[in-house]
Amino acid sequence: MNHSKYGDISQDMSSEDVALYSLTSLVFTLVNNSCVSTGVGLFGMIANALNMAVFYRQGLSSSINISFFFISISDTFTILFIQWANICFNPYIDNTRAPLFYAELYYITGGWPSGLCCRITLYITVYVTTERCLCILFPLKIKNMMTPTRTKAIIAFICVFNAVTLVPEYSSIYLDWYFNKVRNETILGVAFRSNRDQTQGVTWLLHVVLTVVGLFSVIVLTSVLVIHLRRQTKWRMKNSAENKLRPTLTSRDRKSVVLVVAVATFVVISYIPLTSVSLVTVFVSEFYIGGKLFQIFRDTWAMIMLVGMTNASANIFIYYGMISKYRQTFRELLCKKQ
Fold first, then answer.
1. Which of 107, 232, 252, 253 is deepest in the core (most CB within 10 A)?
2. Where would you find the membrane-spanning parts of this chain (predicted)?
3. Helices of type H across the chain
4. Is 109 within 8 Å of 87 (Cβ atoms)?
5. What is the pTM of this model?
6. Kind and range of the H or E element at 189?
7. How far apart are CA 222 and CA 232, in angstroms?
8. How far apart are CA 52 and CA 49, in angstroms?
9. What is the average per-residue pLDDT within 181-199?
10. Any idea what DSSP says for residue 12?
């Protein structure tokens, strides 16, 4: 077995540069992790709890409600894991003198699980977009095609399939006690098995491929949906016998287009940075846990986590602003609590 040995980028810096880099990293961590990310996460947990309550109250008898309900669950776990990161990467956490290497502890207990939850959310979004496309393309058959039971089975498959991709990484790393020369004590951190060379980067590569495929699917399916809705709107306006129906139909179609475009935009904005940094991790060996660029790796992923946290917390605004039934149930819940 081999224990992780972190390289130090400061070895190539002057003493002044080291001091400036340390101060910058400290301020960044306190502002990004401890303040901004933590605050967004607390809001996100409340927002997703409300989302789950609304969809549960409406009933999990439709595929769209089931999908949004499980997206809220996945987003909640994403936020919890990132909040755990905010604790582990707090610059003053080592003052507790606990015999733990928190960065390594998080890598195993929170880093990959948070990535897993992000991908689950992405692929449930792919399913939702697919279901909406089929709903418009095959309106008379969709109820038989996308039943609640099938929706639950598909979401279960999404969860299991994405979880299996973590096997290569977890088969070669584990938590173990080892002597740390810097701290002059035995601490709990990451250890590598003998097969590390064969498995390193495999899970990262799978993560990148699946994320790219998911993003591409969302973009393509959303484009198909938008094009079809526009054609449908033009046809209705051209062939409608009653002119007074035109504004209503146009408004309904426009809201549907805006909804899917908003969802797709949030997904793309959130996952393009994640995919890009994952690609760097795959092809730059030092940009990794145990690598010379670990500090940059840590701070970069802190920013990615903030973006992911924001995406996981923002759906409540999309649902409330664009789904009238959600808005009605949401208000009923608040009135009931009061």
1. 107
2. 20-43, 64-85, 105-128, 149-167, 204-229, 256-289, 301-322
3. 15-28, 38-58, 63-88, 102-106, 112-137, 142-145, 148-164, 167-170, 196-199, 202-239, 245-283, 294-322, 324-337
4. no
5. 0.82
6. strand 185-192
7. 15
8. 5
9. 81
10. G
Q: What HEC string does 239-284 produce?
A: HCCCCCHHHHHHHHHHHHHHHHHHHHHHHHHHHHHHHHHHHHHHHC
Tokens at 125, concatenated: 């979004």
Name the residue type at position 234: K
Strand pairing report for 185-192 and 2-3: antiparallel
| Lowest pLDDT segment from 101-115, 245-259, 310-324 | 245-259
pLDDT of residue 269: 79
The span from the CA of 2 to the CA of 273, in Å, is 32
Question: In 10 A of CB 194, how many CB atoms?
Answer: 9
Tell me the pLDDT tens digit for each residue of 80-113. 998 988 888 877 777 777 888 888 888 888 888 9
Q: How far apart are alpha carbons 226 and 258 in whole angstroms?
A: 9
Identity (one letter) of the amino acid at 6? Y
Instruction: Give me the phi and psi of 94, to 5 degrees please.
Output: -70, -15
* Residue 192 β-bridge partners: 2, 173
Residue in 37, 38, 43 with CA at minimum distance from that of residue 314: 43
Token pair in block for residue 105: 């502890």
What length is written for the chain?
338
pLDDT level of residue 186 (50, 70, 90 thresholds): confident
Q: Average pLDDT of 218-236?
A: 76
Q: How far apart are CA 111 and CA 78, in angstroms?
A: 10
Distance CA 32, CA 38 (A): 8
User: Rounded to whole angstroms, how far apart are CA atoms 144 and 150?
Assistant: 10
